[in-house]
Structures are given as C-alpha cells and as structure tokens.
Amino acid sequence: MDRSTQTLIEEMADDLQPVRALRFRTGLLWLLAAVGLTVLGIALLPGLWEGLWQGQASALFLTTNGLLLILGCAAVSSVLRMATPRVGNRHDGPRWASLMVAVLPVAAVLSLVGHEHPLGEIADPHGLQCFGAAMLASLLSAAVLFYWLRRGAPVAPRTAGLHLGIAATALGSAAYGLACPMDGPVHLGLWHVAPVLAGALLGRYLLPPLLRW
Asked: Is the pTM of this model over 0.85?
C-alpha cells in the first residue's frame, strides 16, 4: 500500500465516530411505549368504550381490531428488521396479513348488495371521525419507526416506507377502535381499514426520499 493510500485511509478513519448497534428489542420497546402512550391519550380524551369490558363487543368488532393488530405487528417486525439488513431477512408477513385485512372491506361491500340505500350505509356520519382519529393515533408510532429507520440503513426504502405506513396506521386504527362503539360491518370494514390504505400510500410515495442514505 503506497503512502498516499495509507494517508487517505487515516484521514477517513479520523472522522469515524462509534455508534451504538441497533437492537430489535430496543426498537420494539420504543414502539410499545409509543402505542401505550397513544392508548393512554385515547383513554383520557375520547375515553375507551365501556362495552369492551361489559361483554357488549361483537365478534366482528373483536375480529376487525384483532386483524388490524396482527397486521400492525407484522409490519412493525418488518420495519425494525429493515433498519439492519442482513442475508436471510424476509418481509412476507405484512403481505399475508394485508390480504387477511383486505377481506373486511370486501365483505363490507358485499353486505351492501341488494340493500335499499347502499350509499346511505357508506356515508356513515361517524366514519370520517374514526378515519381522522385513527390517522392521528398513528402519528407517534410512525415517528418512532421513522426515527428507527433513519438510524439504520434500509436498502429498500420503498418497501420500508410502505411497511412503516401500514404498521403505524394499523396500530393507530386498532388503538382508536378501543374507543369506537360502532360494530357494523360497513363501518368497521371501510372506515377502520381505510386509514391503513392511506398510510400505505403515504409511506410508499412520500417516505422513500427521506429514508435513503
């Protein structure tokens, strides 16, 4: 190695700073804290639905929020692992979980077949409220996941942004679902799933430029 090359390497090494390795467990704890604070905020502001612990929640209500929670967890796992890419990492979980959740809006639309006033069912006066509240409830989780990816080195920023949007909004919708007493198939299948679609689009098209390194 000639002297010029050795000098260049030494100059580059002088600028290096030690960094703490990203650990999946640490990111998960941050995310759990964000979700916990979100649920606490929902409990303090609109308040949790009392029917949850009084046995009034329908099977569809529990299924919808359960599927959203599963989707959120699958996408969170993918995002946390994308920050530290390695050979063998797979990110198929959000895809399959998304297909499961997609059954809900399809079922909602099919339930309107033959209905006398289908547009009236879709134009739910509480729908936009749930949509907006779920989007707000996703902000803290989105901020944590975005910060985690910025600390890491995602090699597929488009997929990382997509999964980040899905994770945050699925968890946000499930969290706000604890405060929503509506359990109709159209309301749950459309307005509680719509935030996930919005989050997926925002994450896929707005976040990649911010995640490149």
From this structure: yes
